[in-house]
Batch of 2 targets.
Target 1
Amino acid sequence: MSVLNLSAVLSSRALWATGPSPDVPAADVVIDVRDLRMRYGRTDVLDGISFTARRGEVLAVLGPNGAGKTTTIEILEGFRMRSAGRVSVLGVDPAHGGEAWRARLGVVLQSWRDHAKWQVRELLAHLGSYYAPYSEPGRRRPWDVDELIAAVGLTEHAHKKVRRLSGGQRRRLDVAIGIVGRPELLFLDEPTAGFDPEARRDFHDLVHRLADQEEATIVLTTHDLDEAERLADRILILAGGRIIADGSADELSHRMSTQAEVRWSRDGQRFVHPADEPTRFVRDLFRQYGESIEDLEVRRASLEDTYMALVRQAESGADGDAPARLFSVVAR
Amino acid sequence: MNAQLAAARLGVRRGWIELRQMFTTPSDLAVILISAAVFVGVMLFMRTSRVPGTGFSLGTAELVSVLGMNVGFTGMATLAGVLAIEREDGTLLRAKTIPHGMTGYLIGKMVTTSGVILFSVVGTLVTGLFLFRGLAVGHAGAWLTLIWVLALGLAATLPIGAVLGSLFPSARSAGLLPLMASGLVAISGIFYPITHLPQWLQWIGQAFPLYWLGLGMRSALLPPGLASVEIGHSWRHLATFGVLAGWTAVGLMLAPVVLRRMARRESGSTVAARRERVLLRAG
């Protein structure tokens, strides 16, 4: 990675740590959702959602099944109408997004058995050519097909028919199709379901590359908290049609639990102690016992603990209002 | 507009690619060849039978009618079935995520279907020239008529096929289409002169493009004398043109509306829900 890219990464990481502020240039806001509502009959699937995403940001949307993740994503993709609220994606209302707008988006679908007779390279070259009229200065569309195939690790399968691919290879192809138009904004629905650990690692590298080098904004839904933590600059947790948390993995766990767990051993005996202020606790520990403290470990709540606690709290909340206020990490 | 044009060209490319895939996939090729061979075989048995009221071979007359049936059947039922299947398996959604992808997809399907139709019509006709007597192909008029009937027939049936494919809720229910089309074949004078049917069935038969496709093909490839066994003792070229053009107009009016409506509904979750249903049935 070049120095330039690295500095871009660092600066983008530095930006999000402070949270989106009102002085983010408008051109950098890729997704802007205000009070989005979706109602089917008498059920509110989305009950007033607001969030933004900036250029180059990786946003993970987490939440239990039925929380409204898919509905939100499909509204942003322009595949579903909303009941109320304001939505702007790449400066356009997705309900009226034309084909030129569509050319700037990428959608990674969970494939099943479509295009079974097509060869990998043939399919990517064909689908990519629809993007050619939409090239922009600095963003030549589509992606060079052989480069793309290499990027998703399908080079040795380039001339295989799609139906001969394994499940994991098919998912790589799905990703390749999603990014063939070099999107400025990419939607991924459960991208690594069915990946082996190596494929998952490759995929994570690819996502980072897209965000850093291509300055693509990436919105992904996942059930894999580990993945969300590793990939996402920011995490949105949805429950019951509301955003119950919005922030980086770190911010979420700090906000959720100030308590950490301190483990140590002394004279061959193991100790475990919860501490509200672990730093002070450890300092006291050393002051008291000095050299005889061994195997010291301080553990913050993991994202999984945080997530479980947040969702439980949201679900037990009578109207869900309290947790929404409590855990909305990012102040607007 | 430029991008739309480019997408239309890509659609034609897509059609060619899928045609090539069909003709290099043994099972696909076998379906096309066998269905053509079955008809030729059946007609061979009828070679010595006579068209009622004439001395002309019934086998030859039917073979020509079958060419017309091929166009209508494949253009409507097969295209509709393919659309229903590919909506279910996510091919259409894939097209929808791509700029002008739907345009390309639909044009591609029309090209592929037309290609299969042309192949089986030409293949059957060439085989017929060797095996059957009485085909009147010795003059340019025959080929001219064949070409305009074929072209107008495709224009009349493909949009209707696309509309039907969009209306059926699942690939399984679209499986009823060939059945319904077969019923239509029975009253369209393909295998037996329509004049031998009750009057009211004749009217129903004449409302659909299938009858006119058969008539048009007969007018192109059979000796002029055989017009005497048709309704009104005539090939009725004007009426053939009128009815097929009418269906073309209806199809072109309905197709954009219905297809747009169908496309609008496609999303990841609708495809996932269908997949779930299909897997449940299979499991």
Target 2
Amino acid sequence: MTDDEDVKAVLLCQKGDVDAFEILVERHQKRMLNVAYRMLGDYEEACDVVQEAFLAAYRAIRSFRREAKFSTWLYGIVVNHARNRIKQAQSRSRHETRSIDDPVELKEGRLQCEVSDCGESAVEQLEKKEIEARVQECIGALETEYREVLVLRDIQGFSYDEIGELLNLPDGTVKSRLFRARAAMKDCLVKVLGDWP
Amino acid sequence: MTCKEIEDLLPGMIDGAIADADKKRIEAHLESCASCRKAFADLRKTDEQVKSLEEVEPPPWLKTRVMARVREEAEQKEGFLRRFFYPLHVKVPIQALATVLIAVVAWNVYKTGEPEFRQMAPPPAAVQEAPKAQAPPEPGPAEGPAKKDESPATREKKSFAPPPAQVKEPVPQRAATVREETMADAEKPVERLRDAKRPAEPPKDEGAWRGTGAARPGEAGRALEAPAQAQDQQQKLKATKAPVGAVAKEAGKQEARPAASPMMSAAVTPRPDLEATLRVRAPEAAASEVETILKQASAQAVERQAREGRVILTARIQTEHLEALRERLKSLGPVQESVHVAPRPGASLTIRIEIRPD
């Protein structure tokens, strides 16, 4: 499906065709869910955010002008919703402030071990899914502004221009945030996984 | 370049998001610096890990739920409108709003144009309105499109109070048109209506009435004179420069006066066959003289009206006395005449003499 098909569906929606919105949901739900999931680290919450984002997009679709790509506009909405969800979660547990230097709490209840505590054997024991879980935890430990650029660029493969448009940021800011996010991720993973192969 | 500077730029090496010059310097540095090489290797591994994250699949219910909420949203919008317009299944709010709007506009128009409404006489010759539909449409002063730069109030006023020079302008045109119509075809509705009315008319009005529109032999030529008479009438009105109200009132009076028959007064307001304007220094005194002259000329139904320094005399006079009357009037002062109906020997005609201050 191309952007033109997006445009057709959007035009139909703007004329009041609700069914045309289903085409857009079908086309973008997976990527939106992955953006939200990688930002939030919680599948159910990500599904919730995607629903909210689609509903918000539907409400605002009449105001969408084709100055930007529809997908850019739509992913901007989901990133905003995910960001708001993160803020809400942070305000709920303000006392549990995290930074990339803090220990990473794993879902399984295991705490991050210091590099010195973790032998190679421990890393080897981690299955692929567990490594992924730690990568996700590291992503979750990033500040939101770093997290979103990392997710959009390194996971979802958006271009720098698209990210700048989507987040309404200049190109230089996108790059500097991404570089810092990558460096922080490296530090986090080195701490979590040690010298992994 | 220091290791710190290199480390800051290393993340850009992952996807080549740094300038070529920096890239070359970093590559040169990495060859000689083991710690930076390790940092770069860790960055690459991190990138691989991040990129290797598996995509999650949306649950099957996600689209269904999204669409359910979207449809609910759409129905709520529709439902709100439906509830708003629900009572009696008619667009009550819109109708109520429209009614209020119309009432306000009507009240405003009435208030704005109230004086003009009062001054405006009832449309002359309601009976004559019937053939008017057959006659070509007249570009009345109120029918012209209002200028865009005029305020609504001005437009409203203009539409109900045409400028002085235009107030009476349509009257001779309309009369002329009607006359043309009636003379051209004696079987037309007006004529038939007149015939039907004739028995109810008093004898003294018959001449005047018939004089304005009856299809008599030899009168067809008068239709051709009508435009010229209309122009004359217009010029005369312009010369008087009477205010709108005065002219309108006078028009109303003048048209209402000859209506001796109640039926006639409601339906038609014939105009005098001859109108004369006499300019004198003392209108009141001159009016008395004119009255005497009229009596001497065996005039009938002499009526006098004084208004705003002018005196208006109406009377019925035999045609043979007309020339003498003219001479006598001229002896009193300059006279302007408008002949609407050419005098016929042996007949009587209605005259209206307006005596104005010089």
